[in-house]
Amino acid sequence: MGPGHEKEQGCFLLPYNIHTCYNTITMTTKCFNRVLLKLSGEAFKGKREYGIDPEFLISIAKELKEGSQLGVQIGIVIGGGNIFRGGAAAANGMDRVTADYTGMLATIMNALALQDAIRRVGIESRVQTAIEMREIAEPFVLDRAKRHLDKGRIVIFAGGTGHPYFTTDTTAALRAAEIKVDALLKATKVDGVYDSDPVHNPDAVRFETMSHMDVLRDKLRVMDSTALSLSMENKIPIIVFNINKRGNIHRILKGENIGTRIK
């Protein structure tokens, strides 16, 4: 591995300058300069059957605040499955293009709700949408997004790619490549990537480190193949972790060995 990529003093997957990250025992600073966090819409339900759980939003907002206070620049992409799943609607007979656009609108609803929670914990954020709706959010403009990040604002990318047939996982990989992140953080309900479903198989084995090609070859359900291929081509490491364990985002940003690292 070349300079800037070594594992040193507890820091992992660092295309970012390793000398900005100190020993994980002291936990005094960050291990990344800029990251993209992918949140599923399903997670927004919290303990509810449908919709948005305000308690979950505030919990996530507090973790994002902690990360922002470390000096890490944070971009976010959110799914919309807690409100509307385009793929499921299309499978039930709805026109695929219409279903996907409806799903994009659901992601914008989630983005606005998260922005409100972030504002309530005292951090600045901006929502940028791939589908223009200037009354409620900025249109996605790459240079403007980078300026917001440089100023310490959290940027929430909503509306998917703005085109049907692409998932929010692919959106996350695309935005991660565009804003040139050090890592893509994939939030899930389990603490990493397993060889089988740990919910149904108590003997499932968790991988600590994998390559993008490993995931693609073994058809592991981490992200869709387009998102994985895009991340691999742009050399974007992915960290898969459990979003339901309080403090995991902060721990990752400080360099702790959390979840599965795909690189």
- CATH superfamily heading: Acetylglutamate kinase-like
How many β strands by DSSP? 11
Provide the succession of SSEs. EHEHHEEHEHEEEEHHEHE
Q: Mind summarizing the main beta sheet?
A: 9 strands, mixed
Class from helix and strand fractions? alpha/beta
Biggest sheet strand order reads 4-3-5-2-1-6-10-11-9
Number of folding domains? Answer: 1
CATH architecture: 3-Layer(aba) Sandwich
The Rg value, from CA coordinates, equals 18 Å
Strand proportion = 15-25%
Distance between the termini: 12 Å
- The CATH topology label is Carbamate kinase
Instruction: Give the CA-based shape.
Output: globular
Mean pLDDT: 88
Q: Can you give a write-up of this model?
A:
The structure is a single chain. It contains eight helices and eleven strands. By secondary structure, the protein is of the alpha/beta class. The radius of gyration is 18 Å and the shape is globular. Residues 1-10 and 12-28 have low confidence and may be disordered. The protein has one domain (32-262): Carbamate kinase (3-Layer(aba) Sandwich), CATH 3.40.1160.10. Helix 1 (54-69) crosses helix 3 (96-120) and helix 5 (168-179) runs parallel beside helix 7. Helices cover 34% and strands 17% of the residues. The protein has helices at residues 54-69, 86-91, 96-120, 142-150, 168-179, 212-218, 225-233, 248-253; strands at 34-39, 73-78, 125-129, 138-139, 154-158, 183-188, 193-194, 206-207, 209-210, 238-242, 260-262.
